[in-house]
């Protein structure tokens, strides 16, 4: 009995040891999951510094682009300011040269007028003085033609409000109504641009204005509510 009991006890202890040493598939899978989880946590810790470096690099790149664009805008603004100043200077220079060239053309006319004035003080022949003034006038016309200055045609033309300025009206039947019968001050054009309109006198029909005025006065005396305006008159 004792020997059998001892055998049973030994067999029971051996089975227990075998159970402790046996590794089941479920336990092995669980251990592998724990190892993988530990490894994943390590990878996250490693990737976090990389993400921070990428963000820092993007910020530095954006700042560099901002500085580059600002410098470029400052250069463009400076270039435009220089261009504007240079353009103003060039325009002023062109105007100055234009005035100089015009005065250089006019100076000979002034010289001839001064000579004509001096000659008039001692001249006894009026025709000679008039001929001298005519020569000065022809010199002015030559200069005007070189500068592109032309005189506006007015006398005998129909009144044109874009070229003429009516100073007064003259009642006449010798000319059609609206005809320029006299030129008070000549007008001039520089190329196609009007410098000064011609101041003129315009023809109107004889008595046309007075008759119209009398007709207006008569019509004002008529009562619009009177059924027989002729009998009332």
Task: Explain what you see.
The structure is a single chain. The protein is an alpha+beta fold. Among the domains are: 61-147, Hemagglutinin Ectodomain, Chain B; 150-207, Nucleotide Exchange Factor Grpe, Chain A, domain 2, CATH 2.30.22. Helix content is 68%, strand content 13%. The protein contains 5 helices and 6 strands. The chain has a 3-stranded antiparallel sheet with strand order 1-4-5. Strands 2-6-3 form a 3-stranded mixed sheet, with no helix packed on it. Helix 2 packs antiparallel against helix 3 (126-147).
Order of helices and strands: HHHEEEEEEHH
Write down the overall mean pLDDT: 77
Task: Give the helix tally.
Answer: 5
- Main β-sheet, in a few words? 3 strands, antiparallel
N- to C-terminal separation? 173 Å
Helix content: 55-70%
Strand fraction equals 5-15%
The CATH top-level class label of the domain at 61-147: Alpha Beta
| Sequence of strands across the biggest β-sheet | 1-4-5
Low-confidence stretches: 1-11, 210-220, 229-233
> What value does the Rg take, in angstroms?
56 Å
Shape: elongated
CATH architectural type of the domain at 61-147: Alpha-Beta Complex
Structural class: alpha+beta
Determine the CATH topology of the domain at 61-147.
Hemagglutinin Ectodomain, Chain B
- The CATH homologous superfamily of the domain at 61-147 corresponds to GrpE nucleotide exchange factor, coiled-coil domain
Total number of beta strands: 6
